[in-house]
Design a protein that fits this description.
Blueprint (H helix, E strand, L loop, with lengths): L3 H8 L15 H7 L8 E2 L9 H14 L11 H14 L3 E5 L2 H12 L5 E5 L3 H4 L4 H4 L4 E5 L8 H9 L1 H4 L6 E7 L12 H13 L3 E5 L3 H8 L3 H6 L3 E5 L10 E5 L1 H4 L2 H7 L8 H33 L4 E5 L6 E6 L5 H10 L2 E2 L8 E5 L9 H12 L1
Parallel strand pairs: 1-11, 3-4, 3-5, 5-6, 6-7
Antiparallel strand pairs: 2-8, 7-8, 9-10, 10-12
Helix pairs in contact: 3-15, 4-15, 15-17, 16-17
The structure holds pyridoxal-5'-phosphate.
């Protein structure tokens, strides 16, 4: 059975340890489920909170009491419309549309932006290229051209030379219609594509009438760590998709934003692909509710981490370092003398969860709003006792 892990092994990417994805392990579901609901824990994995069903319903009940949730009809009106308007404000785009998945948002954006052209340039490590079951090729008859193999992103120079070199590589002309950029890059441990590269790529694509799509599933993480606003990121792209479930609390969903002409084509695309759902208000209401306080929470989260990180680094046996162009993912190297299993077990007693390390006792940890659940001193104490 091919899994993400053995796909990586067979595709040769396993030689690049920093590129091994570690976010969506099934282990996380168990980790979460065996925590008593009254105990708030810190999880150093994932980008946000995954609500248990009971908590989900409770939060929606509160949200409904604060501001009655209006239902939508096939994605029109009610809380869905409110959420779409909110995303227009956040991204500065003219129009937004709720979709059932980010995969659909990426595929439709690449399909519409590339028009009649068959080629779409993507990053070799991107979700669009590796995790969407070849939909572009098999459903939309687009040829995805991957760039930046073995690197966290492709540069403007690489993009330009790939596009301008095409006439020498292929006899029959079939131009590039769109470029898609993922930011931050999940398979590169959340590394951020530098804004200077994005600006150059955007300028080039606009001048050459090439559509530019942002897979911004986790753009909030890039923005919180880079200081570049979501609106600024979005301004360089024709379309941007943001996930509703990575950190906005919904159980699924995506919003795609862009100009009115592009987004107006999406309802038909959704219908013919069976993606128009009768009622969408539960996911929309949860994301809308989370967004009310999310900016503030993320700021507190970054601040709390900036206080905690040097304190943990003062402990003997722990060395945490930021990644180059990193976002909320850090490398935590623990002395080889420390038994990682007993360290993890001990940390669990303090309500702190981490994924297991690699063979060198290096943990990749993700910072998310759960670090607000315990004061820094308690976390330092927990680590001190756990590595003793
Ligand atoms: C970067 C990125 N893009 C797109 C997606 C697809 O999202 P969905 O699960 O909503 O299809 C994911 C999901 O893991 C992702 O990590």
């Amino acid at each position: 059975m091919p899994t993400r892990k053995n796909f990586l092994r067979t595709s040769g990417l396993s030689i690049l340890p920093a590129f091994i994805p570690f976010s969506e392990s099934l282990a996380s579901a168990k980790e979460i489920n065996d925590t008593p609901p009254d105990q708030k824990f810190i999880k150093f994995y994932g980008d946000g909170i995954v609500h248990e069903p009971g908590d989900y319903l409770e939060i929606l009940k509160q949200a409904h009491a604060e501001e009655p949730i209006q239902r939508d009809r096939y994605g029109s009106g009610g809380i869905v419309e409110k959420l779409e308007k909110k995303f227009c404000e956040i991204t500065g785009k003219e129009k937004a549309i709720l979709m059932p998945t980010g995969t659909m948002a990426n595929q439709f954006a690449m399909n519409i932006l590339s028009r009649e052209n068959t080629k779409v340039i993507v990053h070799d490590q991107s979700h669009s290229y590796r995790d969407e079951a070849d939909a572009a090729q098999s459903v939309f008859t687009k040829r995805l051209v991957p760039l930046g193999a073995g690197k966290p992103y492709f540069s403007f120079d690489e993009l330009r030379s790939a596009i301008e070199g095409l006439p020498n590589e292929e006899v029959f002309r079939s131009p590039v219609g769109a470029v898609a950029i993922e930011n931050p890059v999940r398979r590169a441990d959340g590394r951020i594509v530098p804004i200077e590269e994005i600006k150059l790529i955007s300028d080039y694509c606009r001048k050459n009438n090439i559509g530019l799509h942002l897979d911004g599933a986790r753009i909030y993480m890039a923005s919180a760590w880079s200081g570049v606003s979501i609106k600024e990121y979005a301004s360089y792209f024709d379309t941007v998709y943001i996930s509703l479930y990575k950190y906005l609390g919904a159980s699924a969903g995506a919003v795609l934003c862009g100009d009115a002409a592009t987004i107006s084509k999406m309802p038909h695309q959704m219908k013919v692909h069976g993606g128009v759902m009768a009622g969408n208000f539960t996911n929309a209401a949860m994301a809308h509710h989370t967004l009310k306080t999310f900016d503030e929470k993320l700021k507190l989260c970054v601040k709390a981490w900036n206080e905690l990180y040097p304190k943990l680094n003062r402990l003997t046996g722990i060395k945490i370092s930021a990644l180059n162009n990193g976002s909320n993912v850090y490398r935590m190297e623990v002395s080889r003398e420390v038994n990682s299993k007993s360290m993890l077990d001990k940390l669990r007693e303090f309500n702190i969860r981490m994924y297991p390390p690699d063979q060198n006792n290096v943990f990749m940890i993700s910072i998310n709003e759960t670090i607000l659940n315990q004061p820094a001193e308690d976390v330092v104490k927990a680590f001190t006792r756990s590595i003793a």
